[in-house]
Backbone:
């Protein structure tokens, strides 16, 4: 079908352009086949699967706790959420109670990770629009976050920190002071970032009214997270399906309001991410203030053998709902693990949203959806 | 010998000789291990579909036409602008000013027509 | 060059005996100096750009080859020199090979008319400004050749975008230059410089409100002509991979880059010559400067300083701003810049006619006022930069200021 369409396009004298897998702004190995007259596109069809590693299938051959390091590879920009979702699903399957301190630690590292991921998201979007500097300013802050998390668990990218039943390490001495110090410098730097790029008139002109996704379309394509909220849909798992320690904290759910154009345009999605970083800072401060004492790991049997059944654990990842559906057949290995990732749905909307855009707008659309290749393909 | 264009001719030759020599020296000194993947056209790692020499957006053609129109008009103004001062000195300032105003006014009308016809609309 | 040759003849008996040979030697020597100047500017400016970018992006930039990495450009050149010269199978081989030469020649030829002093100039053409616009068109030819010959879609898009953008902004740039030429009354760069004075309030940029605005129009338009951010669409790496030079490698690629960075100097030098007083030294009249060779060099230093400041501003802009979209770019040119340029020409004409009718102190007062306005603008820019660097750490966002 695709080939037939391409043949038709060639005979119609349209240009068919491969964007990806090796292209600077596809954010990983994704391929888009663009049909158009060179600048204005008729459509852009995403082709996924270049980064497929069969993680879901790997889970079926591994004991429950051994799969946690693999979940890191589902979303390497926000691996904490990938750990967390899986751990939650297995905990629900086993009926384990997680200690309060572990839940707080989970929230703190998750929100730190959200900031790191969003810094890359907004920075890469600015870079795709041509401003190189904001990206590196984001990277600089992310390095500090990586240092903090490295001190906590020894890893900078694939953490393997949130385990089934709790977390792997407690805070080393003085780390909470370091996190506070980071937050204190980060908040003014966010304003500097805003002055540098968020309110830049060229960026606004490039993003406002571009690639508008209205609320209905967003819902029907199953968009989640900042992409959904950018379209004005008030839905955040942290508040609406509370998990972990989130009910203890006060925070706002940031929504797109058509800041400088139409509701649901690329600029709204950009702004939602910028604002979510500020909300994350709030959450981390509350969590650090109220960090309870106690165990960091719940009571676990020596061998995890859940009873026959199934469970679903979903977290609000930096890219939206990241859900694990784990089915047990009573052995020590899962019968099936299904991962529901936000990026996959976000990629699927590209074909719909890209009609009539220009190539430069497609780049903005992809960047504003903040898709990352490993989460699409798993 | 006072002709400044001699220097231009020499400069042009220098530029061409310099670049020719260096590009071709690099062909001698540089390595050459061609293979079919290397010599393939770059299309982000996927085999190209169709030819690159297809029709391209007509907008670029419009821009080219507009350029020819406006640049030629602009070139007309140059010699006139150079001699304006001498006209003003002779007291004919107002006359040439009004004359040029009419010329530029017509140019402006042309621009208005282009704009109203939507030659600059991209979607 | 003619004046200098006459001077040489008066000083050097060999030149009197064999004027043709001496002239030939002079021209060859001059050519070598020009190539040297060209390389000596285009090379280090790549290093400067990378160091400045490094500073702006909180990283270091090249610092390994030579002191502070200064010789990085030589290392890069050598590396590219030893690289394989790939020509894709699908390419139009002849066009692909020759495309670099017009690009390089086009930028190099502009160097000929840009004067550094009364004598330090390749050729003082009576049609200097028109010549400049004409040879710049050679660059467009080369770029569109490279884009077409590569037979790669990305190259083609880059080439076509580049051509459209460069020719469009040439109209705007031409109008802006015209605005400044009207008061100078000549197309020769030397005459335009001689028309101005050394002090800032004698520069053409503050001669009238029209030239003041034309300065900004020309600066923006020349950024677009030079494919610099925010108008770097032809080589927008996040959209078109590398634009028209996607398929190029080795020395051919180097020459494209070479021309592009040398073009930075052209942008700075043309603005310096036409708007910012060129090589004039404050308080020194032209005759004194012409007759004293050291004052000539001092003038050249002043010229290069002004040009370098402008080059720094271009680099600064590149690492700060995002880029426009191609339709916004074209619309900006044709909808705003071109009619605005025409308006400026009319205003400049009007000013010229009016200036003959009013007493001199009125025009002088306006020049001084415009100088103050310009100084305020520059001061505001630096204050803003300083604020962003130091003081703004805990200040709220003022969208109206940016």
Residues:
């Amino acid at each position: 079908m695709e080939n037939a369409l391409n043949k038709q396009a060639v005979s119609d004298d349209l240009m068919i352009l491969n964007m990806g897998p090796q292209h600077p702004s596809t954010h990983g190995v994704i391929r888009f086949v663009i049909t158009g007259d060179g600048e204005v596109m008729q459509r852009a069809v995403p082709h996924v699967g270049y980064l497929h590693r069969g993680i879901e299938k790997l889970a079926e051959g591994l004991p429950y706790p051994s799969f946690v390091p693999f979940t890191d590879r589902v979303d390497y920009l926000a691996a904490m959420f990938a750990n967390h979702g899986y751990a939650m699903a297995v905990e629900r399957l086993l009926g384990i109670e997680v200690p309060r301190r572990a839940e707080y630690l989970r929230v703190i590292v998750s929100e730190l990770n959200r900031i790191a991921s969003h810094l890359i998201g907004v920075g890469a979007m600015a870079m795709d629009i041509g401003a190189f500097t904001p990206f590196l300013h984001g990277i600089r802050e992310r390095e500090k976050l990586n240092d903090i998390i490295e001190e906590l668990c020894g890893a900078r990218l694939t953490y393997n920190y949130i385990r089934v039943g709790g977390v792997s390490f407690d805070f080393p001495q003085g780390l909470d002071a370091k996190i506070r110090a980071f937050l204190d410098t980060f908040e003014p730097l966010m304003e500097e970032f805003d002055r540098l790029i968020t309110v830049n008139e060229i960026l606004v002109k490039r993003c406002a009214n571009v690639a508008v996704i209205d609320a209905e379309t967003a819902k029907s394509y199953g968009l989640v997270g900042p992409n959904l909220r950018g379209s004005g849909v008030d839905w955040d798992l942290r508040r609406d399906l509370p998990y972990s320690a989130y009910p203890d904290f006060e925070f706002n759910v940031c929504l797109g309001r058509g800041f400088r154009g139409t509701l649901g345009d690329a600029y709204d999605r950009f702004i939602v991410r910028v604002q979510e970083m500020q909300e994350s800072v709030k959450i981390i401060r509350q969590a650090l203030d109220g960090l309870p004492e106690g165990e960091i790991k719940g009571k676990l049997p020596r061998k995890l053998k859940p009873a026959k059944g199934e469970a679903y654990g979903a977290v609000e990842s930096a890219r939206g709902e990241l859900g694990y559906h784990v089915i047990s057949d009573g052995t020590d290995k899962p019968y099936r693990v299904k991962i529901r990732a936000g990026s996959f749905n976000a990629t699927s909307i590209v074909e719909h949203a890209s009609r009539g855009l220009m190539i430069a707008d497609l780049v903005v659309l992809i960047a504003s959806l903040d898709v990352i290749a490993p989460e699409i393909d798993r | 010998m006072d002709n400044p264009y001699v220097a231009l001719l020499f400069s042009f030759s220098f530029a061409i000789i310099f670049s020719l020599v260096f590009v071709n020296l690099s062909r001698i000194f540089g390595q050459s291990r061609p293979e079919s993947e290397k010599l393939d056209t770059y299309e982000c790692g996927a085999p190209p579909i169709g030819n690159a020499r297809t029709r391209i957006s007509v907008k670029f053609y419009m821009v080219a036409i507009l350029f020819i129109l406006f640049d030629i008009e602009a070139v007309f103004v140059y010699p006139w602008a150079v001699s304006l001062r001498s006209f003003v000195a002779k007291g004919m300032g107002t006359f040439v000013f009004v004359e040029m105003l009419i010329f530029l006014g017509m140019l402006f009308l042309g621009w208005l027509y282009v704009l109203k016809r939507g030659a600059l609309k991209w979607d | 060059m003619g004046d200098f040759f006459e001077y040489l003849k008066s000083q050097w008996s060999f030149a009197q005996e064999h004027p043709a040979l001496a002239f030939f030697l002079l021209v060859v020597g001059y050519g070598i100096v020009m190539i040297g100047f060209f390389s000596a500017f285009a090379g280090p400016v790549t290093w400067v750009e990378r160091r400045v970018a490094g500073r702006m992006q909180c990283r270091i930039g090249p610092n390994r080859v030579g002191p502070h990495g200064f010789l990085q450009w030589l290392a890069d050149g050598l590396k590219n020199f030893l690289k394989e010269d790939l020509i894709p199978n699908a390419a139009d081989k002849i066009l692909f090979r020759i495309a670099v030469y017009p690009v390089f020649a086009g930028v190099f030829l502009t160097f000929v008319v840009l004067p550094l002093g009364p004598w330090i100039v390749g050729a003082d053409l009576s049609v200097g400004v028109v010549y400049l616009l004409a040879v710049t068109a050679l660059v467009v030819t080369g770029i569109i050749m490279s884009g077409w010959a590569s037979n790669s879609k990305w190259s083609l898009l880059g080439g076509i975008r580049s051509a459209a953008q460069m020719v469009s902004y040439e109209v705007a740039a031409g109008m802006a230059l015209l605005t400044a030429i009207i008061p100078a009354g000549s197309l020769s760069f030397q005459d335009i410089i001689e028309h101005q004075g050394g002090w800032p309030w004698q520069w053409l940029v503050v001669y009238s409100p029209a030239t003041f605005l034309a300065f900004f129009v020309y600066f923006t338009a020349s950024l677009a002509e030079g494919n610099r951010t925010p108008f770097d669409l032809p080589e927008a790496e996040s959209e078109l991979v590398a634009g028209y030079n996607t398929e190029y490698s080795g020395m051919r690629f180097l020459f494209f880059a070479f021309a592009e960075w040398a073009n930075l100097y052209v942008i700075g030098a043309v603005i310096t010559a036409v708007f910012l007083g060129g090589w004039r030294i404050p308080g020194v009249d032209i005759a004194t400067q012409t007759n004293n060779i050291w004052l000539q060099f001092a003038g050249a230093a002043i010229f290069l300083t002004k040009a370098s400041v402008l080059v720094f501003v271009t680099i600064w802009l590149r690492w700060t701003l995002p880029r426009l979209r191609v339709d916004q770019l074209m619309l900006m040119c044709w909808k705003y810049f071109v009619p605005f340029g025409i308006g400026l020409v009319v205003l400049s004409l009007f000013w010229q006619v009016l200036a003959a009718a009013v007493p001199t102190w009125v025009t002088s007062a306006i020049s001084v006022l415009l100088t103050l306005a310009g100084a305020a603008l520059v001061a505001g820019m630096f204050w803003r930069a300083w604020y962003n660097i130091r003081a703004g750490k805990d200040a709220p966002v003022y969208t109206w200021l940016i």
Notes: The mean pLDDT of chain A is 85. The first strand of chain A starts at residue 15 and ends at 19. The first helix of chain A runs from residue 2 to 11. Strands of chain A lie at 15-19, 31-36, 41-47, 162-163, 166-167, 309-317, 320-328, 334-340.
